[in-house]
Amino acid sequence: MEKVKSSKSKFIFPKTPTGVEGLDEITEGGFPKGRPTLICGGAGCGKTLLSMQFLIKGITEFNENGVFMSFEEPTKDLTLNVKSLGFDLDKFKADKKLVIDHVRIERSEIDETGEYDLEGLFIRLGHAIDTVKAKRVVLDTLEALFSGLDNQAILRAELRRLFHWLKDKGVTAIITGERGESTLTRQGLEEYVSDCVILLDHRVIEQVSTRRLRIVKYRGTTHGTNEYPFLIDKDGISVLPITSLKLDHKVSTDIVSTGVPGLDDMFIGGGFFKGSNVLVSGTAGTAKTTVAAYFANEQCRKKQRVVYFAFEESPQQLLRNMRSIGLDLEPHIQKGLLQIHSSRPTLNGLELHLLTLRKIIKEYNPTTVIIDPISNLISVGSPHEVRSMLVRLIDMLKLNNITSMFTSLGKESYDSRPDLAEESVSSLVDTWVTVRDIEGIGERNRGIYIIKSRGMGHSNQVREFIIRNDGLHLLDVELGPNGILTGAARKTNELQRKVSQLKLQNEMDRKDREISRKRKVLEANIAALNNEFESVQEELSILKATEQLHSKLLSETKTGKPKKK
Amino acid sequence: MSKQVAEWQLLLYIAGQTPKSVKALSNIKKYAEEHLAGKYTIEIVDLLKNPQLAENDQILAVPTLVRKLPEPIRKIIGDLSNEEKVLVGLNIKSTVQSN
C-alpha cells in the first residue's frame, strides 16, 4: 500500500485537489486520488461542509462529478444548507453532475433476523456513481449505520469490504466520522481508512471559539503537520496556512499623505506608499487614535473610501472626541466615504473578526482601512493565533492594494522594547510610526518618530507634537545642549535663545557704532593730515618758485651783455 | 395470487441469487403460506437488475423484506431464518390472534 516517495524518479503522488482555500496548500495538492480520506471531528466542526465543498468544487472547478451519500441529513436540508454558500445543488442534480442519496435508517422500522450483508448499500452507491460517472464520493457519517444495525460483526466486515470496493472503483472518497473519546472516531473508522486522516476541531479557549484543522496522517506524501485555523464564511471553509503565503502582490510607488501636518516632511517621499501598511504604536494616551483619524480624514478629503474599525470606541464617541480637536469626520460619513465599525474584540473569535473584516472590505471596497487598535485583538486569542490572523489580514489588504493603518497599544516600558502586540505585527508592517511620552522635569510631552519605513528614507528625529483645540501640530525641532528639548525645557530654551539673540544683536550694533566712530576719527585725521600736507606743499612750491626765479635772474646777469651786441 | 389489491403486500429485495436471498425467499414463502394464505403478494426486486429501486425503500442490507401493506411499513433484514422474529416483526402473529 505504502508508496515509496523518491525524489530521484520524480514520482508525483496522485492527488485530487479539494478546491478548499488553503487546504490544497497544506496537503500539497489535495486528497489522495482514488482513495478514501477520513475526516473526523466533534459535532459542529464542519465535517459535512468540508466534504460538500469538496464535491461542489469538484464539479465547478475540476469537472469531476460527485455523489453525496448522507446518513444524517435529508437531501432537502443539505440543499438548503449549501444554498447559503451560493451553490444550487438542485441545478447540479438536474445537470447530472451530482447525486445526493439520503440513506435513512429507522431503527424502529427494522428487525434483523439471520445473515445479511450491505450489498444494498453497495448497489445504491455503485448506481449513483455510475449515473453521473462520479469521481468524488462523500459518505457523511457512516457511523449512523452502527446505531441503525445491531450486528456489529457483519457491519465491520462490510465496512472493510466497502473501502476496498471504493478503491477498486477508483473514486476519491471522503468518509466523515464523529470524534470518539479516546479514538479519532467513535467506531474506530480510522482502522479502515488509513490513507489520509484529517482532524477538525472546534475548541473554546477563554470563551472564544476557534476552528482548527490538522492532518493526522497522509500516507505516501509530505504534508503540513501543524494545526491550522480555519473559518467558515459565506464562501465555505477556508484554511489559513500562514506558512504558505505567496508574497506576490503588486506594489505601488504612489504616495499617500499622512494627513498630519509636518509628518509628511519626515518621510523623504512625503507620506506612505499606497497599499502599504502602517503601524502606529504607543503607550496609553499618546494620540494614536488622533493620528489614525487624521489619516482617515485626509483620505476622505481626497475622495477615497475609508473603513475605520474601532475596537475601543463607539462611532459616536470617536466623532465627538475628534470634533474636540477640530477634526470633523461627520461630513465624510454623510458622503459615504467613511464607515466606522465598532465592536468589542471579545464579541467573537479571531476568525470571525477576520471574516467580518473581509466581508466589509469586499462589500465596500475601500482604499484605506484603519484598525484601532489592533492590540485589542490580542485579548481574543493566543499570540500565535493573532499573528496568523494578522498575517492573513495584511495579506488580504495588500492583495487588494489597500493602504492600512493599525494602531497598537504598547505597555509602558523603560527599555523601550516592543511588547507582544508590536512584536507580532512589527515584522509584517511596512512603516512603523511610534508616538510616545517624553517624560522629564515634571511634565509629560508627546513625541512622534519613525521607526522604520520600508523603501523610503525618513527623519531620525523625535518630533514633539501638541494637540490643541485646532488640532494636532508638529513642533519644530528644538536642539539643546543635551539633545532634543520638549515642553518646558523647549520654552526655556526658546527664551534663552531669544535673550542671547537680543544680546548678540546689541553687541553687533555696538560694534557697528564703534566702527563708524573709528571711521569718523580716522577720516578727521586724514583731513587734518591732508590739510597739513597741502600747506606744506604750498610752502614748498612757493619756496621752489622763489628758487627758480632767483636762479633765472642769476643766469640773466651772467649772459646779459652779449645780448645787447 | 389474487388480482385485486392484496391485504398483505410484501417486497423482498435481493441482490442476485445468493444463498442468503434464496433462503430468505423460501422462508418468507413458507411463513406466508402458513399464516396469510390467499391474502398476500410477494414481489421480488433484484437490485442487480434494478439498482435505482434501492433508494425508494431505503434499502441498505440484503436481503430485506419490506411490508408495504398493511401500513406502517416494516422492514426485516437477514435471511429470515427465525420464524418467530419474522412473524412478530411483520405483525402477523398479533393479526392472527386478533382474527
Topology overview:
The complex is a heterodimer of chains A (565) and B (99).
Chain A (H helix, E strand, L loop, with lengths): L14 E2 L6 H4 L4 E2 L3 E6 L5 H14 L5 E5 L4 H9 L5 H6 L3 E5 L7 E3 L6 H14 L3 E5 L3 H5 L3 H18 L2 E7 L17 E10 L2 E11 L8 E7 L2 E4 L15 E2 L6 H4 L5 E2 L3 E6 L5 H14 L4 E5 L4 H9 L6 H5 L3 E5 L7 H15 L3 E5 L10 H17 L3 E7 L10 H7 L4 E10 L2 E11 L9 E6 L2 E4 L4 E2 L2 E2 L2 H72 L1 H5 L1
Parallel strand pairs in A: 3-8, 3-9, 4-5, 4-7, 7-8, 15-19, 15-20, 16-17, 16-18, 18-19
Antiparallel strand pairs in A: 1-2, 9-10, 10-11, 11-12, 13-14, 20-21, 21-22, 22-23, 24-25
Helix pairs in contact in A: 12-13, 13-14
Chain B lengths: L7 E7 L4 H17 L4 E7 L17 E6 L4 E4 L5 H7 L2 H7 L1
Parallel strand pairs in B: 1-2
Antiparallel strand pairs in B: 1-3, 3-4
Work out the helix count of chain A: 16
Q: Strand content of the residues of chain B, in percent?
A: 15-25%
The major pleated sheet of chain A works out as: 9 strands, mixed
Gyration radius over CA of chain A: 43 Å
Assembly context of the chains = heterodimer
Q: What is the helix content of chain A? A: 25-40%
